[in-house]
């Protein structure tokens, strides 16, 4: 398509060039379809499900609502950039507590939980629920997700 | 088609002047929904996220005026100093979308979209906020009531943008409440913000989602001022609160849509007004 | 039997084994069907009707095809094979031709180099419609008062049940009409597929998120006019299903585009399109009258049940049968007269969703039980206990309930669960109804308690042989399992290896990709895969075990019947031999395939009599809600439940199904509804179709009732559907308790409570 412009995004610590992209593309689309980072998921395209959550300049945001070409200069961390391969404590707790079923909401939730615990190391039950209220899960009813977050909070408190 | 990311207000205003089909992008939480849902084409986009002048707020203690940059995100109003200065704004900010939306959405964006369901807008109206606008031609300030013209219509000229919002801090009480059919992340079915100014003895109440734009209930305000001592905020009769709610409800102009009915909205906004008044006054 | 050796946990049956795909899912590397791509791929997109009912005067694609990047545009004229598809009746056009019958019906499809190019191409297709007055009232289909909107007529099915003495009346009579809104499955992983054409154009491969690979293949092949074996389907990662992936959505369109362009086609729906691209839960109106004795014993049920099937049949006929045959609930009833109708209208097509007709019936019968309790001066618990069904009781269809039926136990154990603590004097503001909106204070809240109990059939009914196939290969101590069972998130990929470990004493179990290179597993629906595919895996593993025992017996000169698996060893029950399975299977390989069929079922006769169902599961729910009675806002505080699971093969997975099902039932109770005005859908987005968030989720206290069902291959009943069935009426009853309002409709709207 004609309406393109070359730009670069800093994703997971690396500067990635985006070429040949239509300028109306969301950050979610560019991550998934152009940068080979399909871990962020799209389920609503309007910021009502949280599946596409990434951290941008220290804030957890919906990547579907970021115009990719406007994110030049921002530091973006996706689910793929959380670790080098080993599971984080949050990821392990999600597996152990049965917080994963279909798994479509999971990457967004993992990013949101890490972001919460980075900023609020010992959140109350209500703080956890409020912080995750933008991440819809259709399979679990959230019970196992709360259990996983509680497990991480307890584990970190013991360390 | 182009995307521009100015880093100063002057650059942004110059772009607004030069580009014929300019579209302003603040937090993206409205704009990108439109793009993703194919509701509008993308032309010349000016993204405001790097314009530093818009990201700041300051408190002028000599005039008791707080000026909040149009690009300050809702998350910043939820906690901290701004929340202490404007508890009603903090309460409204907390109801905006999800935490992710609040990390991106801005007051300027809310004003730009000017939806009657914009969560921050009733608070701004109840606080008698002034909207500060700029273009390459100069600056102007409008009372918020003159800025909001109708459903998704405002007084912005094509080459103009919202720079900031100015509000006086008030002594007294302020609050906000919003009805939605879910406990979080929900578009307002009806909302209200009440400010009780104990110095002047006046009350101001503004309603969201119950009219073509945000509604100020001046008659109910007048009635309350003559029937209750707002400066004291004591001994509020249930009957006064009920009557206030009823009068507020009568000033609402709701419609039926897929989110609710006019009848429910009229009822709900009256209940909110009553409860806010009771919250603000020692019974 | 020799003494067992204590070992570390081996993830056998009965343990809470963890998901094998969990690691990939938490890291974002699990490939959902929307994550797959191919070189040289094009994007596909669908043009849909904006009208619920209209004649198509003309379709002009000439401008669309001229757009740079557009490769092809297809309409009904381009369908080479059968022009329609459908699960039970093939009555839905691949592309509308001549007429559109619901808002969102596919009219054309395009393939282009970018989703945005597709969007522009769709916008450039000129369709001239003559808009017709939509037929949206199911009663008009029943009365025949409107002309047929489809050649097959406006009535999708009528089924009557006449049971016992219909002249019986009771001294106590309660009646009411109930209404259930249209719910959406709202899985998060949107419809997506990648279709890769064979180089000779004679077939294709498809990676797709579906509930039933073989049924998809059958329907695709028919529409393409190709033999089934030329179509190879592989399951892409599925982001939830809940019934919405049982019907064809984009499969045929993507296949047609791939064959036409000779290039791989990726199609994926947006959320808005998804609302139009799959069937929904039937909205229904149900009138019921119960006759009872003064002490609350049900004497007769009369009911009239009307289900709006929308424009095309999908599974409406089967949904209706579930509804009429479950209207008595888990209670004894000797006499009944029931009429059920599934009607065709110009509303969106409805079909399978978790609970499949029983959700609607349950809201009606449970609301009636509370009315009956009140009329007889009994508690909600007592009325249910008095009428509770037991194993051996007959349904109103005449079918004896041979399944274990621990209804009384479900109720009693739920009742024994502690109620949540009373609200404190200064509760957290987010725990109140209205949540973050800060609408209420403590003084505005009234608490209510309500009950719901349900019966749900498992597997397919009415003579359908929904068998499942599985293959087990034991090779050098490693088991490889193969089946076409759709993993949609429910956890069959966890369970299948557990079965193999238990049966064969192995540790390492590999699950091959699910695809059509093996026989059908049937659909991942109807709470059936643990029973059916579980039975098939169990059967295949047992056959392999027989071969292994024969092999060991021969080597050691023993009777294979003396051998047994003990943990990871093979032991001689009459001697001293103990040899590890890995050692015993070194150097040999055995492979067996097994089809599990459930016992045959019967059709219903004209009076609704017949053994039409296979088996049943039961559950009880008690809801505690806080209601802001003045604003009509509700917070569900706690759901207590005891569920008849037969045997908990993986307690953690069962709990996940229970908590997840409860959240969906909660959604139907207080917020989820597709709203239509004259056939126009008003809220096809997650902004306006509201799903429960973390702040809406109640505390769930669950008890698993384990009474293994002798009919079930592993003793386990399906656990997927029951959790979402009676929780909805329980919440509605709790709202009634708090408010004194009638509450005859779900979802309960704020105005139903306070105006």
The ordered H/E elements of chain B are: EHEHEEEHHHHHHEEHEEEEEEEHHH
- Remind me, CATH topology of the largest domain in chain A? Ubiquitin-like (UB roll)
From the alpha-carbon coordinates, what is the Rg of chain A to the nearest angstrom?
16 Å
Q: Please tally the helical runs of chain B, counting DSSP H or I stretches of 4 or more residues.
A: 12
Please give a structural write-up:
With 159 residues, chain A is of the alpha+beta class. Chain A has 2 domains: 7-78, Roll (Ubiquitin-like (UB roll)), CATH 3.10.20; 89-158, Orthogonal Bundle (DNA polymerase, domain 1). Chain A has 5 helices and 5 strands, in the order E-E-H-E-E-E-H-H-H-H. Chain A has helices spanning 27-34, 89-96, 106-119, 125-131, 143-158, and strands at residues 7-11, 14-18, 53-56, 59-62, 75-77. A 5-stranded mixed β-sheet of chain A has the order 2-1-5-3-4, sandwiched between helices. Chain A is elongated. The relative contact order of chain A is 0.15. The mean pLDDT of chain A is 96. Chain B contains 12 helices and 14 strands. In chain B, helix 10 packs antiparallel against helix 11 and helix 11 (238-251) runs antiparallel to helix 12. Chain B has 2 domains: 2-168, Uridine Diphospho-n-acetylenolpyruvylglucosamine Reductase, domain 3, CATH 3.30.465.10; 172-280, CO dehydrogenase flavoprotein, C-terminal domain (Enolase-like, domain 1), CATH 3.30.390. With 283 residues, chain B is α+β, with helices and mostly antiparallel strands. Chain B starts with a strand and ends with a helix. In chain B, the strands form 4 sheets. Chain B has a 5-stranded antiparallel β-sheet with strand order 4-5-10-6-7. A 4-stranded antiparallel β-sheet of chain B has the order 11-12-13-14. Chain B is globular and about 60 Å long. Helix content of chain C is 25%, strand content 26%. In chain C, a hairpin with a 4-residue loop joins strand 26 (615-628) and strand 27. Chain C folds into 3 domains: 22-30 and 466-596, Aldehyde oxidase/xanthine dehydrogenase, molybdopterin binding domain (Aldehyde Oxidoreductase, domain 4, 2-Layer Sandwich), CATH 3.30.365.10; 33-133 and 190-238 and 245-277, Aldehyde Oxidoreductase, domain 3, CATH 3.90.1170; 284-461 and 603-754, Aldehyde oxidase/xanthine dehydrogenase, molybdopterin binding domain (Aldehyde Oxidoreductase, domain 4, 2-Layer Sandwich), CATH 3.30.365. In chain C, helix 15 packs across helix 16. Chain C is an alpha+beta fold and 755 residues long. Chain C has 17 helices and 31 strands. In chain C, the strands form 8 sheets. Chain C has a 7-stranded mixed β-sheet with strand order 3-7-1-14-11-12-13, sandwiched between helices. Chain C has a 6-stranded mixed β-sheet with strand order 9-17-16-15-10-31. The chains are: A alpha+beta (159), B alpha+beta (283), C alpha+beta (755). Chains in contact: A-B, A-C, B-C. At the A-C interface, helix 1, helix 2, helix 3, helix 4 and helix 5 of A face helix 1, helix 3 and helix 15 of C.
């Amino acid at each position: 398509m004609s309406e393109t412009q070359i730009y670069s995004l800093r994703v997971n610590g690396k500067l990635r060039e985006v070429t040949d992209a239509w300028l109306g593309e969301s950050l979610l689309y560019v991550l998934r379809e152009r940068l080979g980072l399909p871990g962020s998921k799209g389920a609503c395209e309007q910021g009502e499900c949280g599946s596409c959550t990434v951290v941008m300049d220290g804030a957890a945001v919906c990547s579907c609502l970021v115009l990719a070409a406007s994110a030049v200069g921002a530091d973006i961390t996706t689910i793929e950039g959380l670790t080098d391969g080993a599971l984080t404590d949050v990821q392990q707790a999600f597996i152990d507590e049965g917080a994963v079923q279909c798994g479509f909401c999971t990457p967004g939730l993992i990013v949101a939980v890490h972001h919460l615990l980075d900023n609020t190391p010992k959140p109350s039950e209500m703080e956890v629920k409020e912080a995750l209220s933008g991440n819809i899960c259709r399979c679990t009813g959230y019970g196992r997700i709360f259990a996983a977050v509680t497990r991480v909070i307890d584990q970190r408190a013991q360390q | 088609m182009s995307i521009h990311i100015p880093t100063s207000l002057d650059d942004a205003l110059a772009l607004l002047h030069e580009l014929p089909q300019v579209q302003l992008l603040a937090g993206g939480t409205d704009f990108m929904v439109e793009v993703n849902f194919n509701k509008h084409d993308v032309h010349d986009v000016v993204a405001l996220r790097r314009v530093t002048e818009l990201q700041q707020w300051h408190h002028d203690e000599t005039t008791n005026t707080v000026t909040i940059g149009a690009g300050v995100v809702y998350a910043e109003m939820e906690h901290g100093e701004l929340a202490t200065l404007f508890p009603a704004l903090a309460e409204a900010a907390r109801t905006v979308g999800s935490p992710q939306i609040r990390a991106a959405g801005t007051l300027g964006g809310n004003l730009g979209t000017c939806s009657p369901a914009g969560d921050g807008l009733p608070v701004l109206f109840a606080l008698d906020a002034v909207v500060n606008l700029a273009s390459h031609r100069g600056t102007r300030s409008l009372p918020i009531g003159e800025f909001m013209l109708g459903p998704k219509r405002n007084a912005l000229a094509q080459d103009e943008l919202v720079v900031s919002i100015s509000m006086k801090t008030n002594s007294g009480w302020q609050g906000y409440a919003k009805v939605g059919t879910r406990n979080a992340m929900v578009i307002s079915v009806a909302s209200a913000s009440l400010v009780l100014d104990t110095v002047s003895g006046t009350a101001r109440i503004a309603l969201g989602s119950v009219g073509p734009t945000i509604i100020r209930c001046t008659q109910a305000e007048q009635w309350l001022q003559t029937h209750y001592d707002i400066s004291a905020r004591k001994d509020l009769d249930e009957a006064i609160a009920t009557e206030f709610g009823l009068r507020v409800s009568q000033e609402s102009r709701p419609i039926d849509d897929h989110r609710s009915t006019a009848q429910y909205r009229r009822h709900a906004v009256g209940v909110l007004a009553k409860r806010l008044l009771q919250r603000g006054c020692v019974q | 039997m020799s003494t067992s050796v204590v070992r570390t946990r081996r993830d056998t049956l009965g343990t809470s084994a963890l998901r094998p795909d969990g690691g990939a899912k938490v890291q974002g590397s699990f490939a959902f069907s929307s994550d797959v791509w191919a070189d040289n791929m094009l994007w596909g997109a669908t043009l849909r009707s904006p009208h619920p009912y209209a004649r198509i005067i003309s379709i002009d694609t000439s401008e669309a095809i001229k757009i740079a990047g557009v490769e092809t545009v297809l309409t009904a004229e381009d369908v080479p094979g059968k022009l329609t598809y459908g699960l039970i009746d093939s009555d839905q056009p691949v592309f509308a031709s001549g007429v559109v019958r619901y808002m969102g019906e596919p009219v054309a499809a395009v393939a282009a180099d970018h989703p945005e190019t597709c969007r522009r191409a769709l916008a450039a297709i000129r369709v001239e419609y003559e808009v017709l007055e939509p037929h949206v009232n199911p009663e008009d289909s029943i009365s025949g008062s409107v002309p047929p909107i489809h050649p097959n007529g406006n009535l999708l099915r009528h089924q009557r049940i006449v049971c016992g003495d219909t002249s019986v009346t009771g001294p106590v009579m309660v009646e009411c009409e109930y209404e259930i809104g249209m719910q959406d499955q709202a899985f998060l992983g949107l419809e997506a597929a990648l279709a890769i054409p064979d180089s000779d154009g004679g077939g294709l491969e498809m990676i797709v998120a579906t509930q039933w690979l073989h049924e998809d293949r059958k329907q695709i092949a028919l529409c393409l006019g190709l033999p089934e074996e030329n179509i190879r389907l592989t399951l892409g990662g599925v982001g939830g299903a809940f019934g919405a992936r049982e019907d064809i959505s984009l499969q045929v369109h993507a296949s047609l585009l791939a064959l036409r362009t000779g290039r791989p086609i990726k199609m994926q729906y947006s959320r808005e399109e998804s609302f139009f691209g799959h069937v929904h839960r039937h909205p229904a109106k149900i009138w019921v009258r119960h006759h009872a004795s003064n002490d609350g014993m049900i004497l007769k049920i009369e009911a009239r049940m009307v289900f709006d099937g929308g424009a095309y049949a999908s599974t409406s006929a089967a949904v209706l049968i579930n509804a009429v045959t479950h209207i008595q609930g888990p209670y004894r009833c000797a006499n009944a007269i029931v009429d059920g109708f599934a009607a065709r209208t110009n509303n969106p097509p409805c079909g399978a969703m978790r609970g499949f007709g029983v959700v609607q019936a349950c809201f009606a019968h449970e609301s009636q039980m509370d009315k009956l309790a009140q009329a007889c001066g009994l508690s909600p618990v007592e009325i249910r206990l008095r009428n509770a069904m037991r194993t051996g009781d007959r349904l109103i269809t005449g079918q004896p309930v041979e399944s274990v039926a621990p209804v009384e136990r479900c109720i009693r154990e739920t009742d024994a669960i502690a109620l949540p603590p009373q609200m404190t004097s200064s509760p957290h503001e987010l725990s109140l109804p209205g949540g973050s909106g800060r609408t209420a204070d403590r003084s505005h809240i009234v608490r209510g308690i309500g009950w719901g109990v349900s019966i749900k059939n498992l597997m397919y009914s009415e003579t359908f042989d929904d068998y499942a196939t599985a293959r087990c290969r034991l090779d050098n101590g490693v088991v490889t399992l193969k089946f076409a069972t759709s993993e949609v998130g429910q956890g069959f990929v966890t369970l299948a290896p557990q079965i193999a470990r238990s049966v064969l004493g192995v540790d390492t179990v590999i699950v091959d990709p699910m695809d059509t290179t093996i026989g059908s597993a049937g659909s991942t629906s109807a709470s059936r895969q643990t029973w059916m595919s579980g039975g098939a895996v169990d059967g295949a593993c047992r056959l392999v075990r027989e071969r292994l025992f024969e092999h060991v017996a021969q080597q050691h000169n023993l009777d294979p019947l003396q051998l047994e698996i003990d943990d990871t060893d093979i032991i001689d029950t009459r001697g001293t031999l103990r040899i590890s399975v890995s050692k015993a299977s070194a150097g040999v390989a055995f492979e067996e395939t097994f089809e599990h069929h459930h016992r045959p079922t019967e059709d219903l006769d004209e009076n609704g009599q017949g053994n039409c169902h296979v088996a049943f599961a039961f559950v009880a729910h008690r809801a505690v809600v806080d209601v802001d009675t003045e604003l009509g806002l509700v917070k569900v505080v706690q759901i207590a439940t005891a569920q008849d699971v037969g045997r908990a093969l993986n307690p953690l997975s069962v709990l996940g199904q229970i908590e997840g099902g409860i959240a969906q039932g909660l959604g139907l109770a207080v917020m989820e509804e597709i709203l239509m005005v004259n056939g126009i859908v008003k809220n096809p987005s997650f902004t306006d179709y509201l799903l429960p968030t973390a702040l809406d989720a109640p505390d769930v206290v669950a008890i698993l009732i384990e009474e293994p069902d002798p009919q079930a291959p592993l003793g386990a009943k399906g656990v997927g559907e029951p959790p979402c069935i009676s929780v909805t009426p329980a919440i509605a009853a709790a709202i009634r308790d708090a408010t004194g309002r009638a509450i005859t409709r779900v979802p309960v709207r704020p105005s139903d409570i306070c105006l």
